[in-house]
Structure formats: C-alpha cells, structure tokens
Amino acid sequence: MGKITATLFALCVGIGATGLFAGHARAATLLVDGTGQLTGARNVDVGGALFDVDFVDGTCTALFGNCDEASDFAFTTQPDATVAAQALLDQVFLDGVLGNFDTSPDLTLGCPFVNCSILIPFSVTDLVTLTMVEIQNNPSDPDFVGLDVFNPFTDTTTTLPDAVFARFSPVSDVPEPASMLLFGAGLLGLTGIRRRRR
Question: At what angle do helices 2-25 and 177-197 cross, to 10 degrees?
Fold first, then answer.
C-alpha cells in the first residue's frame, strides 16, 4: 500500500511540475533587434491561445494575402481583434529590462514618433476595418484600443510613419522540452518501480 501511495504522490508532483514549467515556457518573449527596436513577440496569450506577433510595415495586400477577405487575417471579428490588442498592451508594450516599450513608443519597429498606432486588421468591406492599439508617451493620455479603417489599395504603413501592422500567427501546440523531459522521467520511474516489484 505504501508503494502505491508513493507512486501516486510522485505522479501528482510530476503533473504539477509539468504545469509549472509549461507556464514559464509560455510567457510572452519580446523580440528586440541589435538597435534596441521591438520587432515582435513570441507566445502572446490571446484569450487562451498562443500567437507569435511581428510588427511589419507595408501594404495590407502585401502583408495579409490579398487583404480582400476576412480569412486573410488571424482575427475575423472585432471582439477577437480587441482581445488581441489588449494582449499587446498587457504582455508586449511594457517597460522592462529590454526597453521601455510602454513609455517610449518610438522603440517599436515602424514607430519613429512618441505616438504610434499598431494596426490589427479583421474585416473587409470597401475598406479594411482594423483594431488600433494606440501607444503614446503622454501620461495624461494613456494607451488605448480603438477602431479605424484602412484603404488596402492606397494606404501603406511605410508612408504613415505613426502606424505599423501587427501580424499574428498561431503557435502550433508542440510540447515544451521541459514537459517532455518530466513525462519521460515519470515513465522511467514507473518502469523502475514495476521491475523492483517483480
């Protein structure tokens, strides 16, 4: 009976540790180039799903398929795009060791000024509707999430120096090395217990 209790205890500890390591492995990782510019982030949690995001300049048509249907975008509704925008504010545009990406919007790639609009397209009619994350260096006017429109045929963030696209890509569910290591250690432990009992 003692061996069964010990086995169950080891299994519970292994499962708990796996969750602990997986939680740390899934924290958003900021991507900063050699000049200190924020170029994107990995493992951004958007409503429980993980996304990689890159900040890119250009035309909507060049960056998002033909930019002529909602399926060209990672998010196809305003509520989903708003959750993604809030995730950027909560997990990416932060002041920290790598840089003051909240109070210094000009540190974000494609944003040379103290105010910047991060554009997340989600819908196409005659114009592209997008959710806009406004980050700004102005204590009396805090960062916010709003709506805007973009003409995919004439507008380009390259010629709009206070705007940049956020291009989201879903992260595939590949087990983290730490989780696989713990799982393997647990299997080896159970195999050892079985052999010992024989």
Answer: 170
